Amino acid sequence: MYSHSDGSTDDKSGYLDRVTAGAYRTMTVDHSVEYLIPLGDDLAILRGKQISNTTGEGGGVKMNDVEASSLDVWVKRDDRWQLVGHHMTLVVSGEKWRKTFEAGIQ
């Protein structure tokens, strides 16, 4: 499951459909790791902050410098780590947040 900063959610196929439709023409993400909580040898929870800069078409909204807190769930399958859950919450902090919010409701 993938929860976007606008509150919408996707499963893996829904997220890939967004990508295929051009919702994310360009995207850069800077992500920090604040907490990494291992829950055994094959499960971990990661919490951090991220700044995303995204442009897109096909229903995508241009959003610059989206600041968010994120929580990710990772599972080790077939000797590789896979993201199985992601949740973003916008950071409400003054002018940058206001610009992001206004861009999202136009």
Task: Give me some keywords for this one.
20% helix, 7 strands, globular, 106 residues, alpha+beta
Question: Helix and strand layout, with pairings?
Answer:
Layout: E1 2-3, E2 9-10, H1 12-20, E3 26-31, E4 35-38, E5 43-55, E6 63-77, E7 80-90, H2 94-105
Parallel strand pairs: 1-7
Antiparallel strand pairs: 1-2, 3-5, 4-5, 5-6, 6-7
Give an account of the 3D structure.
With 106 residues, the chain is α+β, with helices and mostly antiparallel strands. The protein has helices at 12-20, 94-105, and strands spanning 2-3, 9-10, 26-31, 35-38, 43-55, 63-77, 80-90. Strands 1, 2, 3, 4, 5, 6 and 7 form a seven-stranded mixed beta sheet that branches.
Amount of beta strand: over 45%
Number of helices: 2
Main pleated-sheet profile: 7 strands, mixed
SS-derived structural category? alpha+beta
Number of strands: 7
Q: What is the share of helical residues?
A: 10-25%
The global form is globular
For the termini, the CA-CA separation is 26 Å
Order of helices and strands: EEHEEEEEH
Low-confidence segments: none
Radius of gyration, taken over Cα atoms and rounded to an integer in Å: 15 Å
For the residues shown, what is the average pLDDT? Answer: 79
Gist?
With 106 residues, the chain is an alpha+beta fold.
